[in-house]
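INPUT
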Amino acid sequence: MTMDGISDATWVAGLLALYGPRVGGALVVDDVADSFVAAYQCAAEQLRTVPASVSLDALTGAVDLAATLALGKPIHTPGLIGADTKARFLVRRAERLDLSCTSIMAQALDRNALMLVAVIDANDPDVALAPKLEVRLPFRVDGKAEPYWTHEDMNLARKHVTRTEVDEKWLRDLCEVALSIGITSPRTVLQAVGAARGIAALKGQETMDDSTVAMAARLVLAHRALYAPPQEQQPDLPSEQQSDQGESEPLPPSPNNDQTDSSTAQNQADADVILAAVRAALPAHLLQMMGEGVGKRGAGRNVKSSAPRKNSGQRGRRIGNKRAASLAGQRLDILATLRTAAPWQPLRRKMAGLNRMVVTRDDFRISRIKQRNEATAIFVVDASGSTAFQRLAEAKGAVETILAECYIRRDRVALVSFRGKKAELLLPPTRSLERAKRALSALPGGGGTPLAAGLDEAFLLAMNVRRGGGNPVVILLTDGRANVTRDGEGNKAKALLETQSAAALFAAERFDTMLIDVSPEPQKSARALAATMQATYLPMPRASATDIARPISTALKTAAA
Amino acid sequence: MDVQKKKPIEAVKAMATRPVFPFSAIEGQHDLKMCLVLTAVDPLIGGLLAMGDRGTGKSTTVRAFAALLPSIKAVKDCPYHCDPASPQTACAQCRSGAALKSETISVPVVDLPLGATEDRVAGALDLERALSRGEKVFEPGLLAKANRGYLYIDEVNLLEDHLVDLLLDVAASGENLFEREGLSVRHPARFVLIGSGNPEEGELRPQLLDRFGLSVDVKTPQEVASWVEIVKRRDAYERDPEKFCGQWQEEEKKLQQRIQAGRKRLKDCVVPDAVQEKAAALCIALKTDGLRGQLTVIRAARALAAFEKQSLVTLSHVRRMALSALRHRLRRNPLEETGSAVRIERTILEVLGP
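OUTPUT
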């Protein structure tokens, strides 16, 4: 067989075709989604394309109103995820799935009732699949797949798959490797075991060899690695190249090479084989991080799920009703509907010749719902040298005070800081005090003032918050004296120009902005900046933390109203 | 006493498709399992909050626990499955005095999905009947379904505020009061609240926190050996659920019987005054708000004693349950560095001695 030349993506397509809903599914990057779906569908049942805007009713089933009215008896539409059906979904832009839908899908995945191929946009680093779904999908596909497998292959492999035993030795190795690269849940190892069994079956084997296990580890464990495994021998130079070019070309069968290399030291080598396979497929950023010696939890891909908080009018407090243009996903105000229909009943009964309530589409009334807007306080803290010494501690104090208040009012907080050469999002919008606490205490100070970069970062974040249906309030703590450009150059004049253009954006978008001048004496530069941003200017030369906090909390209250 | 009686048809069907992973086969998670068991021994403990990272097996454990619960007697066809033996807690229909038929059902365990609408949770006017026949009938929601059982909320910390308000009302009164859409319905809704979530994603409102009797910090073990065991069992289960569950049936039955024995023993369990006083001293030293903390410590300690076949509650029982019962009740400075667990353990040592 010429199986060595098959790309990882093709393997994954084969495994999905083999297992169906028993395997969970895969996360697929949208550039290669079409090739992947094609590769899958030439060996298995069609996938059902489900839009990311799918409603909960459509998934779980509901009463079909139109049909119910027409027939005068309840008509139910079955949900896409039934109690005893096995569903196979293809969801494009899966990061947009509604919170309630992801919950239902996660449950279905746990019951082995759903196979999900979730396609996400790889070009936007800010989007990610809801973590709840992400952890339940064993594979991540970012290379091209070929239509390699046939229905025949699957039928053959299915005979093997239940018989293949997994040695305890392999299990132990997989667990060891998983723990060494920071994988947090045994579920991942379980997924790798399933993959290994499937790969062996697809190869037509009933026993497992190290190349099979290594392959499974590469497919399932590697993309979840939080840090690179400890290096033992020579630094693995080729691995960086591989993960760079591995996008479209099939990976060379590195496990096999390793196998021949290490065949002399049989026993000890097994775990190494898996490790080598994992290392070869590690994402590039991890190798970088290893160089810096960091292994932050969830670093790099710990971005928020971008499930837009739809103003769907389904949740919140009712404040009245209105005529429904369409009923899609809306909550019917039944009483109002019946009341509207009531006066027409004698006439309609006569006309329809029916002896029951006749309700037509025109009578539909839906509830009007008031949703509480969520305020998100975005703190942009100037942690540069000029501020650091005098005011950083006070700035921190102010943020802490607001935090405690946001906690009570359920607002969210985000933290951006800039210093030295660049700006950094220290804390994506969160309600978690634990994380805010940590981010704040780790906030370092010193260096130049890349004000423009800080403003850019804050602007992006504010836009994201607004897109998600929230109300951003930007609170900028600085002295307004920019001296580092966006590129990290120490050029005062250019830095000033850039800062002004960045600040103008805030005015254009009419963000609620506040500038707190943290210099010892009120600065002209800060006042000018506030004017450009159309921000409220608050000089607080000798203010204490609580003094800074007071005006901000007033602004947040109005934003949340 | 025979435990496994007939189950309703749906339950049997669901079992037939794939049995749930057995509770006793869950490796590790000792605290979580113990606390769950205790809520079954004494439902008055008032629920359990399990916080921990993703993939630590919180949901698996809770769902497995659901399957373990012994069955109960309920009024036939009652949407709230009222207890035929206790009319004072029954719904209006069952109290009306008509002859009641009873049936044996498994304890209801209801999943409250995140993002559920208020209609689904609290109930609503029955849409089909209102529209097709013009009748005004109440369609019970999830709260009705959970009566006398468990209400499980995964990611409880992400629950929307208006649902939290609703839950708080119902949990406090044991009743769901529905006044909307021209309907006025009042029905019993007594359930044990189980919540789970990841603390990194958000906090719980203090009012809701206080409603949970016990709380557990769930962590995945970090030793290779236990991982191997977890994966091995889970893999065996995935490959042949029936066979795997068969192997664990004996264990499950034993645990089920122990829970029932514990329930019976509970009312004979004595809490000596000295123990009460020590528990009170502990709560005062920790400055917990209100009396619910102390009440829960005592209840949990008593349930633990009953489960362990003892009829006298000792300081050791209090010591073992104090952390779970009090951890989430400390008034805390939101930015305090040390976790409350450390503080409690230190205080336990000071007040109760080693």
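end of record. Residues 232-267, 285-313 of chain A have pLDDT under 50 and may be disordered.
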